[in-house]
Amino acid sequence: MRVLSVTHGPSVPGGVFEELVEESGHDLLRWVVPDGGEPEPAGRYDAIMVFGGSMHPDEDDRFGWLEHEERFLRDVLEHRVPAIGVCLGAQMLARAAGSRVRPADDAEIGWFPVELTAGGREDPVLGVLPGRVEAFQWHRYTFDVPEGGTELARSALCTQAFRLGNAWGLQFHAEVTLPMVSDWADEDPEDLPYEAGRFLAETEARIGEWNEHGRRLCAAFLAAAAAS
To answer: How far is CA 200 from the centre of its chain?
Structure first.
């Protein structure tokens, strides 16, 4: 398959998702949105993955390219191209679908329990996760589930996953690797809920199992994309 990875800067790549795409023999293409350029029309890709970023989904005054990305994602949704969005990527999919994106009541940075809904347990992608899992998060924004969509997972704070047709949005970072977390901690130490050494040690202890969950989730998404 031709798989497009949409990213928003050098410290927010596709992590284990991109690794699995390449290991599986698919053709991985990349669009780093802030660098400019233009992807092919959405219908020319077999699957699209949209990842995170330090910017928020309503900061068009600071990041003019957000509107460009939204237009592309509207095309993705209109043509029902299989897509999965992570954190900012999920927020942008929700925005493209016409949903409200907004600051959450609190930040979730670190490891938080996430529970699948009944729809999530039956979903071909989210359903590969345990019914309750400690998920890695780094976000201050949330979104409404798009009209016609299904909520697939929640934390105590907000929606954590939804499905709309062939598009899945994940608020948690299923793709993240330890080097990525280390980079984020260096870039935004003021965001950390406690001392960086403890934060990274906790992440190092958990990341192996979490990466296995992420790889299974990505594999399920790729299988769903191939089937469509």
So the answer is: 21
Q: How far apart are CA 44 and CA 60, in angstroms?
A: 27
> Mean pLDDT of all residues in the chain?
97
Confidence of residue 51 (pLDDT cuts 50, 70, 90): very high
> Hey, is 58 helix, strand or coil?
coil
Cα–Cα distance for residue pair 187/121, rounded to 1 Å? 36
Tokens of residue 59, six digits: 């900061």
- Flag whether the pTM goes above 0.70: yes
| pLDDT of res. 14 | 98
What average pLDDT score do residues 185-206 get? 97
The 3-state DSSP class for residue 208 equals: helix
- The answer to whether 132 touches 113, Cβ cutoff 8 Å, is yes
CA 109 to CA 30: how far, in whole Å?
Answer: 27
Q: What is the C-alpha to C-alpha distance for residues 175 and 14, in angstroms, rounded to an integer?
A: 6
Q: How far apart are CA 167 and CA 145, in angstroms?
A: 12
Owning domain of residue 162? 2-227
Q: How far apart are CA 124 and CA 219, in angstroms?
A: 11
Average pLDDT of the segment spanning 149-172: 98
Domain count, the chain: 1
Are 110 and 136 contacting, i.e. CB atoms less than 8 angstroms apart? yes
Q: Give the pLDDT band of residue 13 (cuts 50, 70, 90).
A: very high
Residue 136 belongs to domain with CATH number:
3.40.50.880
Residue 154 burial (C-beta neighbours within 10 Å; 0-12, 13-18, 19+): middle
